[in-house]
Write a structure and sequence with these properties.
mainly alpha
Length: 107
């Protein structure tokens, strides 16, 4: 689809262009958030994440909301700990099948 914005301003073209630029930024922000939400819902339902959301240069990547660091015993390999974590039933429900160690949770 297309959104067409036409702005007329009594003080002239410069003011109209300024308002048009602000409107474009608002529309782009709304479109990005809408796409993020749709992609997150799809990832939650299908347990498969889109590269539009999770790829290296994902145009709709969400900002990180939470990170946690868990210290491991020096004898535990990180990959071993991740595998054990992913195997937990309460965590397995949220893992994405096509993105290693990425989980989707819906409130």
């Amino acid at each position: 689809g297309t959104i067409r914005l036409i702005v007329h301003h009594p003080l002239g073209r410069e003011y109209a262009q300024e308002i048009l630029t602000k409107a474009e930024h608002l529309v782009k922000g709304i479109v990005k958030i809408s796409n993020q939400q749709l992609l997150l819902i799809a990832a939650y339902k299908s347990k498969s994440g889109s590269d539009l959301l999770l790829g290296a240069n994902a145009p709709f990547a969400c900002p990180c909301q939470f990170t946690a660091e868990m210290p491991l015993n020096r004898r535990v390999l990180p990959q071993q700990a991740i595998s054990q974590l992913e195997a937990l039933p309460m965590v397995a429900n949220f893992i994405l099948s096509n993105h290693e160690s990425i989980f989707v949770y819906k409130e």
